[in-house]
């Protein structure tokens, strides 16, 4: 941008220029508002190549003075928004007349009545889109007022002389032969090498002074907004009348024309001005010119400029200012983001690639919907399973953010995306080869979801395959007990809290039955009674090839049985009866009797008696268990004669 510029011919057209009918008065009678989005990549060095950022520069000139393109000596005047200084990054605003369009205001001499300096060094950030708006309000009996807004916030207010209607003191009738033109960037005759690089996404000039609310509304539309503010006001109405919008330039709309086409399509006078600046024939039909059309050319009102012509022989790159999250759909959607995960070779690369996926899914609603519809979270789970050895706590937090269960702004977090929750968090095979601490952190997070007083979370988790996956993990990966000892049983207890569902109770019952010893095996009877005495052996076992030990089976079984016994012992009478009835109906009375089989660990028998206490078996279930009790006590005849009924 330091060696090129854009020329806007006939911004305030005279009778023979511009597109449309009538003449546009400049400066406007009530005031003027300049609005633009700026992106500064690199600033020039004030000691080596000081180069200002020329945002906009208006000038008036007659036709004869454009015949010397090498350095046109035309009358020019500053505008209420001009340059960002290369010295201290200040915005220099001038309404005074200058001898040369595009002159560096640091070198020009201006009075305080016509020049204002706004410090931007502390508020403008490189490599970030910044919205700049300058509002000049005209006053008749006193100084006009200028206000500068950055990202919707007022940062400067000052008194400043308004723009002179006739620059250079020319007679009013000269306005018939002169028009007002503008330049964005560095004019060709001031080009020199510089490291300055900056962009504009859109630019608007409104012939009225906007309020702070209006400026804030424009800022909320973001850099990729394309329009003229006709549907963004209250109740979908216009922010400003369309005849007040002098020009609207957007980098997303460009075209290629020649001088001959401009002459035939728009204005002969405009083509002559462009011809003088470029030094080519006005009838040229071969040299391509990049044109940014005026987006408000079709609207009501007097004549307007047809757009901005890119000046210079190097051309200029054009772009559509759009967030990456919006552009990702045009290059394959989530597929290239999955490719980044596949190519990750260390934890840092995996974190960065997963961060890109999370950011895109949160910022792009259509991408988020597409991932849900295609169950793309299963693909993410498969990719993470292959990268499990690279997992750490930061990557786990990103996964939780992708699922949506990690929201620090809320005291109680619901599970917003059941599909992602089941595919990423409930599928514990994803974390099989991850460090043991990752399992502990995952269990702790799931436990928090169940203990935040949200019944919806409990219902979702009970309907998910999480309980089955945890029980499978207890069998398949016994070494995890060393890091997840308490939290895994706390999590199971939270899932099984009264009154549990029949499916969950059946899964726990079948798991406990699978840990019972085979008939004739009395190895369990030789181990200590207390679970605290068994714990050191459980923690010190090697678990080679993921083989479970007898001590491990006893410990896990007794912890789960103790959980059920505590539920019965600490429930109110009504819940107590319901749980007892549910155990007998779902698991059967023979499941309880299996706990008393020969060779079973003594502590298992003890907890079985706690569950089998007379108050644990309801009246309705007692009659169905008569036969089983008689079998334990002896023959049916002997039981009947002993008076049991």
TrEMBL record:
Residues 1-20 are annotated as: Disordered. InterPro entries: BEACH_domain_protein, ConA-like_dom_sf. The keyword Disulfide bond does not apply. It comes from the Eukaryota. Keywords: WD repeat. The keyword NAD does not apply. PANTHER family: BLUE CHEESE. This is DUF4704 domain-containing protein. It comes from Steinernema carpocapsae (Entomopathogenic nematode).
